[in-house]
Amino acid sequence: MVQKTTHFVFLLGLFSKTSCYLILIQEPKTWSEAQSHCKEYHFDLATVQTDEDRFKIQEIAASMNFSNRAWMGFYDGVFAWRWSYQDQNLGYNNWDALEDTTSRTQRMCGVIRNTGHWHVASCEEQKPSFCYDGDYFGGKFIFNSAKLSWRDALLHCRSKNIDLSTISGSTESTVVGQSLKYIYSQYEAWIGLSKNLWLWSDQSKVTWLSVKWADGQPDNADGNEKCGFVNETGLIGDEGCLQTLPFFCSEF
Fold this sequence. Notes:
Blueprint lengths: L6 E6 L7 E10 L1 H11 L2 E2 L5 H13 L6 E14 L24 E6 L4 E5 L4 E7 L6 E9 L1 H10 L3 E2 L5 H13 L5 E13 L26 E4 L5 E4 L5 E7 L1
Antiparallel strand pairs: 1-2, 2-13, 3-13, 4-10, 4-11, 5-6, 5-10, 7-8, 7-9, 11-12
């Protein structure tokens, strides 16, 4: 029996030069099969990381009485640490010699301890933080004693038109570590390091402050959930790539 393929098309940015259609295809495929289909007949699997994207997903789901999960273009790809300030690559580092920086269980963020060494922590932990004023000559480290998650610390810094701190050399590591120990009497604090596990298949830049995970996601439940789905509310999660799901394509 040939399974009927159902399409629904919704236009994003109708009056924009970068107009993008979202197309729901309800024939279940694996993530790779879905991407191949999108690339052959449309553009790529859909990128879903703005409020507008999520609204259009909800519109499509409601109009088609769709209450399932569907593949989108999110996947567990490059495994690299980056600085939040200007999305810079990690050059200098001062990881503790015993620190495991390669864990792939969840998105991780970086702290500096009062030894000056860097360590890995879950981004959801509540810690003080250092903001960094890059416009100040030589840079200026600004301590925030409020215990926040890494994301909330980043939002706090950016609300002041600055960013979480970038540490570019051994002198800065030592100075910041010593200030934690002797001035602020703290063990560790967030800096601007985070590890981006996930990429968009169409090469769009991942905007982490805009990515909306469903409750409990990503959980990598079986240790092999490397592909992303979107649900009918526009929230995203991870799933094994060999699962067969409907999928959203994008087309320009």
